[in-house]
Every structure is written in structure tokens, then in C-alpha cells.
Amino acid sequence: MVRRAAAAAGRALARVVPVVLGVVIAVFFLLRLVPGDPAAMILGERATPEALAALRAELGLDQPLWRQFSDFLWGVLTRFDTGDSLVSGVPTRELILAKAPISLGIVVFAVGLAVVIAVPLALAAALRKDGWADHVVRVLPAVFMGMPLFWIGLLLIIVFAVQLQWLPVGGVGSGPGEPLRSLVLPALAVALGLAPPLVRSLRAQLLEVLQSDFVTTLRAARIPERTIIWRHVVRGAALPALTLLSVNTAYLIGGTLVVEQVFGINGLGTLLFQSIGSRDFPVVQGIALACALLVVLVTGLAGAASAALDPRLRRAGSADPRRRAGAAR
Amino acid sequence: MTASRSPRRAALAVAALVAALALSACGGSAAPSTPSTDPVSGGTLTFGRVASANDLDLHQQITANNAFAIDKVFEPLVAFDEQGEIGPWLADYEVSDDGLEYVFTLRDGLQFSDGSDVVPEDVVFSLNRHLELGGPLPLEAPIASIEASGDREVTIALSGPYTPFLSELASFSNGILPADFGGASEEEFFERPIGTGPFAVSEWDPNGDLVFVKNTHYWQEGKPYLDSLVYRFVADDTQLRQQLQAGQIDAIDTVPATNAAEIGATGGTVLSETPGWSTEQVFFNTQREEFADVHVRRAIAQALDRDGITEATTFGTAEVANALLPPTITYSADDSVEALEYDPEAARAELAESAYPDGFEVTLLIASGNAQRAQIAQIVQESLAKIGITVEIEQLDIAVFRERFFAYDFDFMLNSGQSDAPDPNGFITFQADPEGFSKSYWTHYTNERVTELMHEGRTTPAGAGREAIYGEIQQILADEVPYIPLFFPANLKATSEAVQGFAVLPNGSVRFQDVWLSEGA
């Protein structure tokens, strides 16, 4: 048992390390390919060449690229840090830890909202296939899927913050309950982007299960419809939905970063945009690395959760739950 | 081309009409609100800004995001007011007849925010550190010595006459800090700096908000009125405006010209529109052979309708520029210089005299993220097409934009010149000194007469003689057009109605010691 767990952990690590290393290398060199001098960004247009040269030396930007890369890699391996911010001098790890709770708050909140939105809609559509609810559910997500996230965010601001004044237009307020209230609209914006594919997939899964032989058998056995739906159909469709959510982690993180900008929330997204603009290499690298780790972690966890929920996956020796769709047939 | 002519004129006319209406609509609120009752003490003001303050070292920083936080903490010996007039601030002063010796007498009972006394040694330490570091906004005056010459006296001797000295000294970067950083290390000191300013730093996230508290030892009796001041970081300017309108923040640092009318017309918000120290310009790289030809530059100047551009892109918030120096700067020649006027016929004739009578192709470089400049670029493109010059617009993000023009890798560009002081020397030197590091603002423009006058301007005592010098410089620049001054943008800020005494300096900073919140705020 222990050996099997160790082997599984080893396999997981073998997948994670190349991914993370790839991200680290790609981000480092891609950033260096982009023109734009951090020293000039910090000092502005009226900085003398002497001041610029002095600052470049202080920031280590006058070092050869291989030297910068080896220092960077050494820092990541030994200190779990991509270096001090070129602009503020604060270690990147501290910056990320300070801003992460807000961004993760939006992510978690958005997932919750997406589930709350998607499950009832998918159920309503699947149970009355080709009924009016089904038509609405098939059309409405298409509308939201065509809209860029920042646009959804702006609409939410105009309606709920500016017109109705129910919620703050942006920022993260202080005081009891305020931060939570401030995160409702940004999380909703992300959730509205995430919910459509979730509804579609869930509806398809539900229909598939509803039409399967074992539901027919259960119905023939006069098991109450309510029990069939909640105990068998919904549970059967939950697993693919979980997978879909984990596959969408990257979208979710990206969406959160965009939405932060629209709502004036000073989280990781804003820090990232700022840092790209000022060519603050260590911070951009740090955030990219953190996001990559998060995506790898979430997909890994989702795989593990699927395996735990569905014994067939364990037997098949595959952690890829996408294969389950085929297995279910 | 004729087909596109009338819509463009029509668009300009419509824009002018809109601007005129907007201007008349917000005419009443253009000036900052004047207190109708006595100031009330207390309260917190939240000031929304699009960039965080990430460094408070007054000798190393120059960008507005940091400078306008630094000047709340540190103050110089002399300072300028909203009109740009220089007067005593931390010290009174006397100048010797030959203009070589300045004796500064510190205010009686002057204290730092930690309650310790300000002594002449603090002044000596502060100015010497700045001299040693140089930094992005250095003391250029030929300073021979800085000495503590009494209990409250500091004497600064110059090795030669230098008229802009007081103006230079009035910069925020010549603020006074405790000698030897009050015993702290340099790094520690600038994390929690101590100065004589109206506010002291209380909480600071270099990538986010900055919270100031009132300096209870401030030398201006009863000021500041506010208990605390919060610089709230809101990266997006749309969000910034909406938070002000929703009452989440009390004042905002920047209002795009497009939104000025809306802010002024919306209930609960007040637009603050004050003259600034910057000039929006078209800059030519005179190292490019086309732009080395003065006829080409003159032709372009005559092909551009500056009035139309100003109206269409600034919505009546800016003043059309005739000369290089904004009217708020001493010896601005805006009303006396004869600039080349909009005249497409004359432009074609001028181009015919150049080596490129049939026109040529060039690239206009602009920074992205600035809607106004993108608009100006399009007008330039259309205007120049009419005289046969094909313009390609290249829009780059600010970091790359800077790298390109720092390397003289551009044909012509849109940018602005900005002064830190009311004296013309800084602005002129930066834009017309071929020996300076910016090589005439990266235009590489060289004119011996201008260089000679520029040197004279620094040593000629204030008065008619000096005025004539800067007048002549500006006239030469207007004739040879290494850059085309388009307009002088105003400082556009906005507050909620509760904010009183909001005084904006011409460099764009706000004097928060004078600000108070009226009842019901």
C-alpha cells in the first residue's frame, strides 16, 4: 500500500517537475526577449545615463544572461523565491503571499457561484429536454461565452454598483463583511464566464445518465424518481463536472487576474500587470511560477479526487478522469 | 483625399462644439471650491491614484507617483505656490548683492515629525547628500560650499552667478531630513521617513496603498486639518472615476480630458482644473535626413491645425501652444512668439523648397495606453497626407517606447515636456541643450545661438534682460521647429463636494495641509 502510494507520488512528481521547469525557463527567456529597460521605467524620462547605468548595476541587469538565469534558478531552488522586486525591493515571495489571499478568494468564490448557477440550470434543462427551460439553457450560455470577461465585469458594475448601488464599484473595502461584499461582483463576473461550459457539459452528462440502462432498470424497479435523480443521476454526473472545473483552472486564474483589473482590486492580477509594464522581471516570473504550480496542483488533486470517487479509475491505473466518459458507456 | 477632408473638418467642428458646451457647463466648477466657512479639523481623506508610491528616497526619485508622496513628508527651504511664485518655506533668505551668497534663516521652533528640532546641520547634511548622489533631478547650481553659520542659519556660497538657484532649491528633492538619518540606517529611514512635512508615513505597501497620519509638530499653526490621508491605489482610470462617483473615495489624482465634463456635471463631484507645467509636443529626430531639413519641419508645422487638434482631443481643457514654455513658467513667450500658423498652402510651398518636394514616408512613434495621443497621431497622419507625407503610426508599450527614443531610433514622436520648477532654465536646458544627456530631448537639435543664449540665461539676473533671452530662444525654436508645441494640458483632478481647500500646484501635486472635509462627509 505504502509502496503503491510512493510510486504514485513519484509518477506525479515526474509529471510536475518538467512542467514547472518548462514554465520557469520559458518565462525567464521570453521576458528577456521583450524590449524595455526596467531601469528606465523606474527612473523615468529625465534620468541621466549615469543614473541609469548605476541602477542597472545595482539591480544586476548588467550581468550576462547566463549569470542572471543561474542566480534566478538558484534562488528558486534554495529560497523558493524568484528574487527581490526591481521596483520596490521587496522579495517576490512576500509580495505574492500578501496579494494571493484576495485573488484566491475570488477564485474560490467564483467556483462556488459557478456551481450554484450551473447545477440547477443543467438539471432543469436535462429533466425537461426540449422544453422551454432547455432552450433557455442552451441559448443563454452561448451569449455569455461570446462576451469577454472584462465586458461582463463592466456590465455588472454599471447595473449593480452604479445604478442599483447594491455593491461597491471596486476595491476591497475594510470593516466587517466589507471585503466579502466587494468580492461578490468580481467573483460573479468570473463565474458567469465559467458557468456556460459547465452547464453544457453537465446537461449532456445528465441526459446521458438519464437515458442509460441502469436508470431504466431503476425506474422499472419503481424506485422513486426523486431518489433516482439525486442519488444516482446527479452523483453520476458530478465527476465529469469536477474534471471540467479542474481543466478550467487556468481559465479561472486568468479570468481572476483580468477581473481584478476591471474592479480595481489590488491582488495578484494587478501586481502582474504592473510588473509587466515596469519590466519587473522577478515578480512576473514569481507570479507565473505560482500560477503554474497552482494549475498543476489543482489538476493533480482533481485527478486524485476522481480516483477516490470512482474505483474503476484506480483499476484502470489512470488518473485521467476524462477516460471515464468512455468507460461509462 | 478631398473626400476625407470635409468629414474631418466636420468632426473637428462637432468636437469643438461639444468642448465649448462642456466648458460652459462646468464653468462654475472649474476653479477648486473655496471654503465658505471656517475649516474643520479631523477626518480621513482617501485619494485615488493610478500608481503606487514604491520608493520615498527624495534624492533618487523623480516620477510623479513617488514625488507627490515624498513632498508630503519632506519640505525644502523655499517653495512655490499655485501660481508658481517662489517664497520662503522652511527658511527665510537673503541674497548678497553679487548673487553669490545665500543666507537662509530657519523658522523659529521648526521641528521634524518626531518632535526633534531642525538645526542647520540637518540642512547641510540633506543638501550635501543630494549633491553627492546627483540623482535624476540634481542640483545643477555651481555650489562652492554649504555651511551652518549660526543657531538657525545656513550659508550657501556659489562659485559663479546662477539665477535659477532658488527655483532649483524649491524642488521636492531638496527637502530637509535629519542629519545622519536621525541615527537610523539609510534603508530603515526611507521606510519610515521623518521630515517637516504635514504628514508622516503610517502604513505603506509599495505595491498598494500608502497611509499618512497628521504630523502633530507641523509648523503651520492648526494644519494639517486632516487626521489621516490615504493614497489608494486603483490601477484603472475608469474604476478610479467610478469609485469617486460612488463615494468610495474622496478625490482622484487624474481625470482624462474626455471625462472632465462628465465629472463637472455629475452631482456630488467637483472638477479641479488648473494650469500645469507641461507642453504636449511633436518631436522630430533631426538625425533623420528628412527631419534634418528645416523646410520639412516647417511644412509639417504649417500642415497641423493646432487649434483643431487641441479642441478635438482635450475637450476644451487645454490651451493651444504658441511657444515652448507654458504660461505658468516665468518668461513664457506664449503671447509674444510668432509661431507658424495652420496654412496647408504655405505648407505645400514650404515642402517644395525642401529636398523632398514630393513628400516621403515616415513613422510616428507613440506610446500605447494613451487614448489622447492615439487620437492626435491620427489627426497628424491625415493632415500630413494632404501635403504628400505618408505617416505610419507605430504604437508601443511605454517601456519599449522609451527604449526606442532613448536610442534615437525613431523618425518623429508624440510626447510631452514637463518642468519641475517655475524657472525656464530647466525646461529649456532639457529641450534645447545638445550637450546635455537628452541631446535636446532626443531630437539632436543643435543651434549655437540657442546654446549661447541658454548659458547666458542662467547667469543673467532676473528682469527684462533675462526675459529677452528666453523670448529669443523660444522665437528661434518656433521658427526652426525641432518640436511643435501643440497645447498646454491642464492638471485635471476631481473631488467629492465635501472636500474643501483642494490646492493643486502647477507640477500636479496637491497641498493636502490646506484640505479639510466639510460637515456630512
TrEMBL record, chain A:
Keywords: Cell membrane, Membrane, Transmembrane, Transmembrane helix, Transport. Coiled coil: none annotated. Residues 100-302 form the ABC transmembrane type-1 domain. The chain crosses the membrane at residues 12-31, 102-127, 139-162, 182-199, 241-263, 283-309. It is a multi-pass membrane protein. It is found in: Cell membrane. PROSITE patterns: ABC_TM1. InterPro entries: BPD_transp_1_N, MetI-like, MetI-like_sf. Belongs to the binding-protein-dependent transport system permease family. This is ABC transporter permease.
UniProtKB/TrEMBL annotation, chain B:
It comes from Leucobacter allii. The keyword Nuclease does not apply. PANTHER family: OLIGOPEPTIDE-BINDING PROTEIN APPA, PERIPLASMIC BINDING COMPONENT OF ABC TRANSPORTER. This is ABC transporter substrate-binding protein. Gene3D superfamilies: Dipeptide-binding Protein, Domain 1, Dipeptide-binding Protein, Domain 3, Periplasmic binding protein-like II. Pfam families: SBP_bac_5. Residues 1-30 form the signal peptide. It comes from the Bacteria. Belongs to the bacterial solute-binding protein 5 family. Residues 85-433 form the Solute-binding protein family domain. Keywords: Signal, Transport. The keyword Oxidoreductase does not apply.
